[in-house]
Amino acid sequence: SENDEGTKSTVQSIFSLVVPALASLAIDPLMTLADTAFVRRTATNSNALAGMGSAAALLTFSFYLFNFLCTATTPLVASRHASGDENGALVVGGQALSLSL
User: Fold this and answer.
1) Cα–Cα separations (whole angstroms), residue 30 to 11, 34, 39, 49
2) Residue pair 77/93 in contact by the 8 Å Cβ criterion
3) Partner of 84 at 20 to 30 A CA spacing, among 1, 24, 58, 60?
4) Number of other residues whose CB lies within 10 A of the CB of residue 14
5) CB–CB of 95/76 below 8 Å?
6) Gap between the Cα atoms of 51 and 91, Å rounded
């Protein structure tokens, strides 16, 4: 039926947005795990692993702290773009880029 097709396309649209978002959030802990495993195998003493733990904690903290740029900017740009305000979307995107640098 027509309603089932609309529901399927809506679900597909949602999943096409959710899967990349989850992957981008999962990549940081996975890379930290891989880095820690590599340092553990190659380190000659425990100081290297301790340093890796501190660096990973700081990097993860900064990743989540500054992740608000993506989370806050995307809906702002999308709403301006959807309303036809291309200049407003460019301004918001430019402000986010300036803040990130």
Assistant:
1) 27, 6, 14, 17
2) yes
3) 24
4) 10
5) no
6) 41
CA dihedral 10, 71, 62, 99 (to 10 degrees): 140
Look at the pTM and tell me if it is higher than 0.70: no
User: pLDDT per residue over 20-55, tens digit each?
Assistant: 878 877 888 888 889 889 998 988 888 988 898 889
Give the pair of three-digit tokens for residue 19: 């899967």
Percent helix, percent strand, percent coil in the chain, to nearest 5: 90, 0, 10
Q: How many CA atoms lie within 13 A of 41 on its CB side?
A: 5
Cβ proximity of 80 and 89 under 8 Å: yes
Which of 57, 65, 64 lies closest to 26 in space, CA to CA?
A: 64
